[in-house]
Amino acid sequence: MVVGLIGGASMLNSMYMRGENRNMENKHGEVLVIRGTDWVYVPRHGWQGSVPPHRINHKANIAALESEGVSQLVGVCSVGSLRREIKPGQLVVPDDYISLCEIPTYFERDAVHITPTLDEDVRKIMLERADKLDLEIVSGGTYFQTTGPRLETRAEIGLLSDYAEVVGMTMASEATLACELGLRYAALCTVDNYAHGITDEQLDYGGVMEKASMGQDGLHELLDQVVEGLKCF
């Protein structure tokens, strides 16, 4: 069993960047694929993290993972918290998401209506392994995807906070495409900051990126455990 992983800034210093890497071409575009013994990793922002959220080729990324034999996929996603009680440095395993604009699909011409979900079995493995490692983790909640690349306004966050617990720019697109290809996808979200206006702290992108490294040791240890659990699933 080969486990798929896809991640961003919080994965730049992980062991998953040190596998055998190659550029892979499919009909949707070119993808950097990094392979280990029992896992395949795609850095969604490219090798140096230079691809901004609105330019990510989600269709190429997910198709590449499927072609590598992946059936279970973990998305590692950086998010902003929409709740004061969900603090920077925590991990969240959402159980639903909202994405209302620019929804990607592989079915450009066919009327195929999937029911998008986050896989409950993959979520369960994440939560069980986090518990064994005694990591503080939030189970459940809704992820709201915005398009980026800018951060959200205070007014937008005020609206989103009525409907979701965390906000990000990538996960919903990945989850939808994974469902279209029959892949079992769930997300492990790292809370890097409070979203704009949740606290009085001034928010800027540089600060968000600096905080993206918070709790990386625990995150990477958990990912190792999740891969171990999923490959035997």
Task: Describe, in plain words, how this protein is organized in 3D.
- With 233 residues, this protein is an alpha/beta fold.
- The chain has a single domain, classed as Rossmann fold (3-Layer(aba) Sandwich), CATH 3.40.50.
- 27% of the residues lie in helices and 26% in strands.
- It contains 6 helices and 11 strands.
- Strands 1, 2, 3, 4, 5, 6, 7, 8, 9, 10 and 11 form an 11-stranded mixed sheet that branches.
- A hairpin with a 3-residue loop joins strand 3 and strand 4.
- The N and C termini lie close together (8 Å).
- The mean pLDDT is 92.
By CATH, the architecture is named 3-Layer(aba) Sandwich
Radius of gyration equals: 16 Å
- Can you tell me the residue ranges where pLDDT is under 50 for at least 5 consecutive residues? none
Largest sheet descriptor: 11 strands, mixed
Q: Which percent bin holds the helix content? A: 25-40%
User: Which superfamily, in CATH terms, is the homologous superfamily?
Assistant: Nucleoside phosphorylase domain
Tell me the overall shape: globular
* Estimated share of beta-strand residues: 25-35%
How do the helices and strands line up, and which of them pair or pack?
Blueprint: E1 3-7, E2 20-26, E3 29-35, E4 39-43, H1 58-67, E5 72-81, E6 91-93, E7 96-98, H2 120-132, E8 137-139, E9 142-145, H3 154-160, E10 166-168, H4 171-180, E11 184-194, H5 205-211, H6 216-231
Parallel strand pairs: 1-4, 1-5, 5-11, 6-8, 7-9, 9-10
Antiparallel strand pairs: 2-3, 3-4, 5-10, 6-11
Helix pairs in contact: 1-4, 2-6
List its salient traits.
eleven-stranded mixed β-sheet; 27% helix; globular; Rossmann fold; alpha/beta
